[in-house]
Amino acid sequence: MTDSVLAQAFIYLCAAVIFVPIAKRLGLGAVLGYLIAGVAIGPFALGFVGHEGNHVMHFAEFGVVMMLFLVGLELRPALLWQMRRPILGLGGMQVAVTAAVVGAAALALGAAVKPAIAIGLTFAMSSTAIVLSTLTERGLLKCRGGQSSFSVLLFQDISVIPILAVFPLLGLATTTAITDPTSESGRPAWLSGLIVIAAVVGVIAIGRFVVRPVFQFLAGAQLREAFTAAALAIVVGIALLMLQVGLSPALGTFLAGVVLADSEYRHELESDIEPFKGLLLGLFFISVGAQIDFALIGSRPLQIAGLVLGTMTLKLVVMHALGRLFGLDRASRWLLAISLAQVGEFAFVLLSFAVQQRIFGTELASTLVATVAISMVLTPPAFIVLERYVLPRVTDSAEERPTDEIIDEGAPVVIAGYGRFGQIVGRLLRANRIQLTILDLDPEMVDVLARLGIKCYYGDASRSDLLHAAGCAHAKLFVVAVDNAETATKIVETVRAHFPHLPIVARCVDRPHYWKLRGLGVRKVFRETFGSAYETGIEALKHLGYRAHTAHRLAQRWRKHEESVLEELGDLWRGGDRDTYFKRTRGAMDEAERLMRDEDPTVYSEGHGGWDNESLRADRNINEAAVEDSEVS
Amino acid sequence: MRRVLILFAHPVVERSRVNRRLLATAREVTGVTIHDLYEVYPTLDIDVKREQRLLLDHDVIVFQHPFYWYSAPAILKEWQDLVLEHGWAYGHGGTQLRGKITLNAISTGGPESSYHRDGYNRFTIRELLAPWNQTAHLCGMRFLAPFAVHAALQVIGDRDLESQRAAYQLLLEALRDDRLDLDRAAAAENLVVSLPTLVPREVA
């Protein structure tokens, strides 16, 4: 037994180690890698693992629980409250409408009413595991479409509970029809309700009042593994509690995560749970892959292909329409619809439960399980299609919002980019009653500035017609303050080409960008983080006991050297000989050190002995000594 | 009791020989406010209102500084230019400093003997301090003789400065307790030298 468990673990881990990196290299993403690994080691390919995959899957589903805990940790309660509308509205509509449409389709395909309802509800679910992993992997979770997807998934997780309660009413198995399917005892509904509420309050209370002192105690003990054990214990414990009262464990741990999102141990918990979650989710995906019954698919490929495509199309159309109804932009609508088009892992649970409740037979169930599994496998490739072919066509935001009509009021300064950087420049100038013509390409920024009463024109400052309209022909100065290096370079090139007499002051990202812009003829280029880092350095010197004035003088001396070296290094950089470049850079560092030590700027008249009687007598000529001294100080 | 303010100006106290030690002495005298100008205004950006409030809160203003180029480090000039406003310190309605006492506590590189008509510095310290004297006069302040420590570069250790430190402490205490003979202190050449004769011994 032990042997086989170890052997199994070895096979799963090897499959992950081999397939996941390959899939990532090929740009398919980790989730698809796991799924392919599952197919590869499954009974229909290499046959390393058999049908015990089902048990593995139940174990691995705990990865989903952990994932929702981590998602909860990222969501402060206030943020969750802000999302109530998409969760209840968009999520609720999605479940209701998809269930109705899929149910109707099932009816049309010849199913009876009750099985059709069950199928509709089951297929309304999407895969939290696959969607959240894929969105996170591709960095899409934080965008508007990603957030909407998350809201819908959250509602689906909540709705599993009532769905499980409804199934017995649809089935032929009358014996268990009355009782709550997930709790053993035949408690009356009001008591169950009370228990559920108590459990939720309990989770919140634990998060608020128990976890902190426990972690403080553990931190005092300085036991890394005790921390990990405690973090796991929290997640497992809450999952157990939720199962006891008949709530979704994923939902419970999500709640606990939200409660702990404000705590100082958030990062600790995150880093402790993260690896377990990753491995278990991987295992989950592998078992999904291993579960696909290729024999069944092989026996009726067209039927299953039709079911998969039909289901996904229906779900996609419903989601896209709802996205439009809730005012999402085109890109977000597509992201939302494609990400939620598959059927989720809850379907496996619901389908086996449906069979148990005798809503429909095993044969239909296994066809549906295959459909669900394939739809899940198709999700990562669907994302690839979305990113490569769909999003580029629908996201061109510059196309969506027409460039503003610029009214040239003869402002002496034109400033391109009015974000964190440009605003500081702008505030200083405006405080001195200097008029600005402001251009920015971030529609949100333009709107925010409008609310502040600042006129900012939406438009691409690298277009010469726009620069003409902004009054570059008679402006005295052009300030480039955009945060993107390429955009900044493009703007500078356009300004230099069309308004060669207009001086430019520009923000740059790093040294190569600095030299690039200087090479293009920009008068003064400022590295975007230099100023604040410089101030921080001065502050550090002061804290180390340097006199405030000395720290400033040393810093000024250092800065002058740094700037002169920067110009000099530019030639070497352009020359292309990296060895010489790095040698000179090292040399410059030594120089700076000597500069602080030997040519100390803080040496005034004292220390040279210039005013000392003895030295003056030795010099004989007093006037000469005084002149020399004044040059040094 | 008089409230004593030391306006301290030294760009590199960490290299100072005399001023650093005198400042340590001053810190031990209770009732003396020390205002370290270069530390408070490292970029010479002086807060005029704050400086004027400080002046109003005190009765004796001591400028303690090295005697750079027969005058003071740059920040004191900036301080004078900004803080001594017309209409506040002098001129029409400029009476805020009237009646206050002021003096310079300075260190010089050259020895005492050089500050003479026939020395290489050609003028006495008092003569060289004429602009300070006149500034005080215009503001209605009483200008005392300087407390001048000469040959500052000869000072290597604490022991070299023992008598001067004692004198500085006595001066500040006497100013604070109003025990200094102000008329004679105004007429003296250097308070370091003549201080003992200006403060009556306390009756035991």
What would the keywords be for this entry?
heterodimer; A: 633 residues; mainly alpha; Na+/H+ antiporter like fold; 6-stranded parallel sheet; 29 helices; 71% helix; disordered C terminus; B: alpha/beta; Rossmann fold; globular
CATH class of chain B: Alpha Beta
> What is the approximate shape of chain B?
globular
CATH evolutionary superfamily of chain B = Flavodoxin domain
Quaternary structure of the protein: heterodimer
Describe the structure.
The complex is a heterodimer of chains A (633) and B (204). Chain A is mainly alpha-helical and 633 residues long. Chain A has a domain of 392 residues: Na+/H+ antiporter like fold, CATH 1.20.1530.20. In chain A, 71% of the residues lie in helices and 4% in strands. Chain A has 29 helices and 6 strands. In chain A, strands 3-2-1-4-5-6 form a 6-stranded parallel sheet, with helices on both faces. In chain A, helix 21 links the parallel strand 2 and strand 3. In chain A, helix 4 runs parallel beside helix 12, helix 9 packs parallel to helix 17 and helix 10 crosses helix 12. Chain A is globular, with a radius of gyration of 33 Å. The C terminus of chain A is likely disordered. Chain B is built from 9 helices and 6 strands; from the N terminus they run βαβααβαβααββααα. In chain B, strand 1, helix 1 and strand 2 form a beta-alpha-beta unit. In chain B, helix 1 crosses helix 7 and helix 7 packs across helix 9. The model of chain B has no long low-confidence stretch (mean pLDDT 94). Chain B has one domain: Flavodoxin domain (Rossmann fold, 3-Layer(aba) Sandwich), CATH 3.40.50. At the A-B interface, helix 26 of A face helix 2 of B.
